[in-house]
């Protein structure tokens, strides 16, 4: 559930308004030349194409263009749901000569995979201009001359303009703090739905530039001490991330799960979403906990098991955003430790995902 | 979608009343000794357990029993949907030392897989007695002394009583015709949701003994010239299969699809549901047809693609039973040939699946 290009999230509530499902005709650069080069170099007979949900509709046209540029190649569109670079269609990857993953930056480079990031052509600066009202004043009347520190983050779609955004803020008197996160993040300043290590910077304010609230809400949950301002050039709106509703839901789920006698512990089989040791440790220490393996973690699939509560060691966003849709409490690994009494309630924090695979 | 033990089908209409979702406490023999022997022989550290949908709820108790009989073994429950022996959780199979598949008879034997069939303990004979009213009279007043021919079929759950059923009918004066189907079927007289080769017998009447209408409706669609009587000992009812509603739906879908300009051709990646050549041939001959690969073929997944119609080369029952739930016409490969004008409308027949993998 990370930086989808045009990807729709399946959540109710705030996150539906991510602007990711906008249908206005953005044009993307599918980097067909790079794909055709790889086909020719490898003498490929089969090519797999994987798009995030919101861009699957573009798949046939991209396949058409590629057919015209190649000969005797069979193109296969992945029909598996896709929510991030953590979510490669490994079946298709193994069975095609060239495999192209669109819309996400690489989580892990591989000769087998061509990543096409799909940079947005939307202009971020008008909304950044508007966001200044939420940032500290660079030239206060009673100023000490120090420039105010502001963190800057964005998603894969806007990475190509990140240096310009930094310059733009610096020119307006800010001390812009940025960093690259851990291995899971390709670029400096990049955030994923499950990883905000790029916002581990010394600044009380963070400006998020990008479409929707999915990423900045995660960022604000991970860094509750920071004010997170959203400059959204896709929906043309500036807001401040408010996590109150989500935090209430988390506490409610933890409280409900405190009565659970039996636990289903979900190990996600998606290539970049597996935390085997975490899952294994829970089961080793709790005789009423049982391991369940699956790729898509959905309410339907878990309803068939008669457990009182679940722990999801896969994508944290399934838990925080889709959690209320499950028939039983669904917790993150950290929340589970609270529910069974191993940790105090005050230790509740956002679940993040580190490393690759 | 084949012989689920207790599996619920997801279809609307007649097929919901399959009796497969009954919650009365049937007891099954999980053959724990056979599993424990395999664990010990192989020194297994991990064991995967896969149940059909309706029996997933029993998984934790089976895991508990196995934990008591073994030491230092981690048991993993498959959370993937499962509708048949065609639908093995290959991820779990590859990553566990012993893999147990419950509720279906083997489609293909393998050292890696322990199949536990789960025979029903329900008594079929009272309903068979009642079904005699629908079968030809063995002793008509104007008889020629010849015994009337009746085919007999059942599902994996009742295979253990199949010889007794044959005897029972023979004793009542019938010439019972049975056969084993092709490689896809383990036992003589066994049917799957996608394969009725065991009913290719010289008899105008076929008696189906088993729960629900899922299998006998498929059988009646595959053999429209035969009268198919259903002796259902799970729901305690005798009926005659009536395919009219389904056939109307099939013709309606084919007619709607005749206007389609673009086609999505689904290749199913489940181990026993792939028809690669069929899918590949369609795409090779129609430049407006595009290959899509996926495991679960669902309306949600196909909605993201902008095609006018779909061809499903995977499980035929998704097409015939769930077809109306898709937003665009969903056809079998044979129906596709009619819709694009390669074959006459009269050639419409039930789609079946042969061989293993």
Attribute tags:
Rossmann fold; homodimer; metal ion binding (chains A, B); 2-(3-amino-3-carboxypropyl)histidine synthase activity (chains A, B); metal-binding (chains A, B); five-stranded mixed beta sheet; EC 2.5.1.108 (chains A, B); four-stranded parallel beta sheet; disordered N terminus; 357 residues; alpha/beta; iron-sulfur (chains A, B)
Structural account:
- Chains A, B: It catalyses: L-histidyl-[translation elongation factor 2] + S-adenosyl-L-methionine = 2-[(3S)-amino-3-carboxypropyl]-L-histidyl-[translation elongation factor 2] + S-methyl-5'-thioadenosine + H(+).
- Chains A, B: This is 2-(3-amino-3-carboxypropyl)histidine synthase.
- The structure is a homodimer of 357-residue chains.
- Chain A has eleven helices and 13 strands.
- With 357 residues, the first copy, chain A, is of the alpha/beta class.
- The first copy, chain A, folds into three domains: 29-116, Rossmann fold; 125-240, Diphthamide synthesis DPH1/DPH2 domain 2 (Rossmann fold), CATH 3.40.50.11850; 248-347, Rossmann fold.
- In chain A, the strands form three sheets. The first copy, chain A, has a five-stranded mixed beta sheet, with helices on both faces. A four-stranded parallel beta sheet of chain A has the order 2-1-3-4, covered by helices on one side. A four-stranded parallel beta sheet of chain A has the order 11-10-12-13.
- The relative contact order of chain A is 0.13.
- Mean pLDDT of chain A is 91; it is low at 1-24.
- Strand 11 of chain A pairs parallel with strand 2 of chain B.
């Amino acid at each position: 559930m990370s930086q989808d290009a045009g990807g729709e999230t399946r959540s109710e509530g705030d996150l539906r308004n991510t602007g990711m499902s906008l249908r206005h005709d953005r044009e993307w650069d599918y980097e067909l030349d790079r794909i055709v080069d790889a086909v020719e170099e490898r003498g490929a007979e089969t090519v797999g194409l994987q798009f995030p949900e919101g861009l699957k509709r573009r798949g046939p046209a991209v396949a058409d263009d590629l057919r015209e540029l190649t000969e005797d190649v069979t193109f296969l569109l992945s029909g598996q749901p896709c929510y991030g670079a953590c979510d490669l269609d490994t079946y298709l990857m193994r069975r095609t000569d060239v495999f192209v993953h669109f819309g996400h930056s690489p989580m892990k480079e591989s000769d087998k995979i061509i990543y096409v990031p799909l940079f947005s052509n939307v202009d971020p600066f008008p909304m950044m201009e508007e966001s200044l009202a939420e940032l500290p004043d660079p030239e206060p009347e009673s100023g000490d001359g120090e420039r105010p520190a502001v963190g800057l983050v964005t998603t894969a779609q806007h990475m190509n303009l990140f240096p310009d955004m930094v310059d733009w803020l610096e020119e307006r008197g800010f001390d812009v703090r940025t960093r690259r996160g851990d291995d899971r993040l390709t670029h400096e300043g990049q955030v994923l739905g499950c990883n905000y290590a790029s916002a581990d910077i010394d600044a009380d304010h963070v400006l998020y530039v990008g479409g929707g609230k999915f990423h900045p809400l995660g960022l604000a949950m991970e860094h509750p001490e920071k004010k997170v301002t959203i400059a959204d050039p896709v929906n043309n709106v500036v807001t401040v991330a408010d996590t109150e509703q989500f935090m209430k839901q988390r506490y409610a789920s933890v409280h409900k799960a405190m009565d659970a006698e039996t636990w289903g512990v979900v190990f996600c089989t998606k290539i970049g979403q597996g935390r085997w040791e975490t899952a294994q440790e829970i089961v080793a220490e709790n005789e009423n906990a049982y391991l369940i393996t699956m790729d898509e973690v959905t309410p339907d699939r878990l309803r068939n098991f008669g457990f009182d509560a679940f722990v999801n060691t896969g994508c944290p966003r399934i838990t925080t955003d889709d959690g209320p849709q499950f028939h039983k409490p669904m917790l993150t690994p950290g929340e589970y430790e609270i529910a069974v009494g191993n940790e105090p309630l005050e230790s509740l924090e956002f679940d993040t995902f580190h490393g690759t695979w």
